[in-house]
Amino acid sequence: MIKEDHIANFVVSCGYNHVIERTIVGSVAIILLLAVSNVALATFEMMMRHT
Description:
Helix content: over 70%
Number of strands: 0
Distance between the termini: 75 Å
Structural class: mainly alpha
Radius of gyration: 22 Å
Low-confidence stretches: none
Mean pLDDT: 87
Order of helices and strands: H
Number of helices: 1
């Protein structure tokens, strides 16, 4: 009984950790995409002004 409970708890905690990791990775990816697009827009505006 005790071993099975421990295994179940381990699986549940691993599942939660996986979800949290995915959320963190997703938010970081979105932030990176926003930063890259902002830089691209800024450089594009600079190039348009110079020409």
